[in-house]
Amino acid sequence: MPVSKPPAEREAALISVYDRTGVVELARALEARSVPIYASSGTWKFLTEHGIDAHELAELTGFPSLFDGRVKTLHPRVFGGILADRRSEVHERERSEHGIPRIGIVVVNLYPFEATIAGGHATIEEAIEQIDIGGVALIRAAAKNFEHVTVLIEPSQYREVIAAHAESRGEISPRVRRALATRAFERTAEYDAAIARYFGSGVLARDLPGSLALTSPISAVLRYGENPQSRAAFYLPREHALPEQLGGKALSYNNLLDLDAALRLLVPARVPSVVDPLADGHARRARPEPVLTAEREPLVRAAIVKHTIPCGVAERATAAEAARLALEADRISAFGGIVALDGTVDVATAEVLAPVFLEIVAAPAFDDDALARLRKKKDLRIIRFDGALPGELARELRVRSALGGVLAEDDDPKASPECWRIASQRQPGEREWHDLRFAWDVVRHVKSNGVVIARERVTRGICAGQTNRVDAVRIAAARAADFARGAACASDGFFPFPDGLLAAVDAGCAAVIAPQGSIRDAEVVAAADARGIALVFSTYRYFLH
Predict the structure, then answer these.
(1) Mean pLDDT along residues 143-163
(2) Model confidence at 435, in pLDDT bands (50, 70, 90)?
(3) pLDDT tens digit string along 443-458?
(4) Is 249 a catalytic residue?
(5) Catalytic choice (91, 240, 249, 307)
(6) What count of other Cβ atoms lies within 10 Å of the Cβ of residue 132?
(7) Model confidence over 326-383: pLDDT tens digits?
(8) In whole angstroms, what is the distance from residue 25 CA to residue 51 CA?
(9) Residue 269, pLDDT score
């Protein structure tokens, strides 16, 4: 294919976009200033159909688009025009000798890799074909040479360039070019991070990532952080989306933290195996199915969170009853809290929640009448989330900053399954098994030292963040009051001495679950047997700092 000689000194624009929003208006502004336009094949066809006098990139490179579009911009005539340093005599001489035009504007956006993998339905072949190579290279080249080249990666950036070209000189200031280059490098980092996350997920994720890619685009600038003297923003990978907000004020920093905590409470723990070492005089595996998994009817869970700590959780056959009992578990703490349910909010549920001052009501679905009732509270944030989201949160890599770096953890797929051991002579009854499992589900989400007292699958006393476990039990028992009689007590860590367990017994608890591992486990078991309560040990602990 013959190579046409480009215009002598007029700096050209290169346009290669997947998202063509606003690109015709931009091209017309450039054309009005007599800026030569080169475009990749698909973009060139789109521009010419809209009356733009553009040159197909193949005219410059001498090569058509190859290999199903995998190679179309990777050529010295393209990258030389972008990367040549206008201040260098050597660069200018080489550019002139090889007929390379100056390219002063690069307009590129990338194949939608993040959108392709969102939802998890794309095959690996489909995902691979959406990995942009030439586009990323063009963006990086233009950003590197920002002193001479303007790089545009998003339609929202076109307006400033259009305005500049409507003026007499049509120049973009060095400050703006540098800001655009910064955003360009941010975008390529986001893109590569999304690809790395994708390849590191699923079957390949047998180990923690060798390099932690945290780059995500800004999703929302928040009014302030945890406190008004802080500034804050929320960042979210493009392959994810925030739950849909159906009403109320914008979400704050603390709202987002509390919403995350509330949604995690909706994920029930896997039912562990149970061992009764006293049965038949030797260790055997008990059959937990009749008492741990069989339910007469599906249950809805309602969880109320305040400052990321559960203050009321309940399970019942209807959302309205679950919400009512979760509120009654600690109505004072629920004031200004966040409610999440894993069932549909109907009008009966809305009538339970509406009289209470709440920051957020979140659920996977809302009846129209319920939504109308809740929307009467103009400040109440109403959130509809994908029912799969709580489970996805439970499986994600958990990160937090520390000492100038980042700590990361996830659930080790190679870890031995959790197992419960009946440590006491008395076995829990059926209702006690349900309450033990329920309390254990909740205590996983309570700041350590954490203790939860539950009865009939309603939390009756929750204590978080104590520096000694005995006080945690006593505070939880005091909050439970008379409801502690016959209840189950869960502790997120083992009892180092019998005193913590005895505090639960003195409050009236009939069954206790805690991790094993104390050097005084035998003393704790002896205390349980002496007081006639059921004691279950887990092989897992659930510290939450």
Answers:
(1) 91
(2) very high
(3) 999 999 999 999 999 9
(4) no
(5) 307
(6) 20
(7) 999 999 999 999 999 999 999 999 999 999 999 999 999 999 999 999 999 999 999 9
(8) 11
(9) 80
Reference 37, options 8, 65, 57, 20; nearest CA is: 57
Per the annotation, the verdict on 307 as an active-site residue is yes
The residue written with tokens 């005539």 in the block is: 77
How many whole angstroms separate alpha carbon 341 and alpha carbon 405? 35
What pLDDT does 9 receive? Answer: 61
Q: How far apart are CA 31 and CA 129, in angstroms?
A: 33
Residues paired with residue 405 on neighbouring β-strands, in sequence order: 402
Q: How far is CA 293 from CA 271, 342, 492, 536, in A?
A: 7, 18, 22, 17
Residues facing 5 on adjacent strands: none
3-state secondary structure 273-305: EEEECCHHHCCEECCCHHHHHCCCCCCEEEEEE
Is the distance from CB of 98 to CB of 62 less than 8 angstroms?
no
Q: What are phi and psi of 442, to 5 degrees?
A: -80, -40
Least confident of 14-28, 124-138, 284-298: 284-298
Can you tell me whether residue 310 is helix, strand or coil?
strand
* Dist CA 460 CA 438 (whole Å): 12
Q: Which of 82, 218, 224, 231 is nearest to 154 (CA)?
A: 218
How large is the greatest C-alpha to C-alpha distance in the chain, in angstroms?
97
Tally of CB atoms within 10 A around 58 = 18
Alpha carbon separation from 158 to 36, 53, 86 (Å, rounded): 17, 19, 24
Strand order in the sheet with 300-306: 244-247, 381-384, 358-363, 337-341, 300-306, 309-316
In whole angstroms, what is the distance from residue 114 CA to residue 190 CA? 10
CB-based contact 302:325 (threshold 8 Å): yes
- The residue from 91, 144, 249, 447 that is catalytic is 144
Lowest mean pLDDT among 179-193, 198-212, 365-379: 198-212
Tell me, what's the pLDDT at 272?
A: 84
Instruction: Kindly state the tokens that stand for 239.
Output: 């392959």
pTM above 0.85, yes or no: no
**Helix 158-166 to helix 23-32 angle, to the nearest 10 degrees?**
20
pLDDT band for position 160 (cuts 50, 70, 90): confident
Look-up: residue for tokens 């215009």?
7
- In angstroms, how far is the first alpha carbon of the chain from the final one? 66
Q: Which helix (H) or strand (E) holds 91?
A: helix 89-97
> pLDDT digits over 191-200, tens only?
888 888 888 7
Whether 121 shows a pLDDT value over 70: the answer reads yes
For 364-442, list the strands marked E by DSSP. Answer: 381-384, 398-402, 405-409, 419-422
Question: Could you give the 3-state DSSP secondary structure of residue 150?
Answer: strand
8 A C-beta contact, residue 350 and residue 333: no
Q: Rounded to an integer, what distance in angstroms lies between the CA atom of residue 296 and that of residue 317?
A: 9
Please say whether the beta carbons of 113 and 191 come within 8 A: yes
Domains of the chain: 12-202 (3.40.50.1380), 245-271+288-399 (3.40.140.20), 419-538 (3.40.140.20)
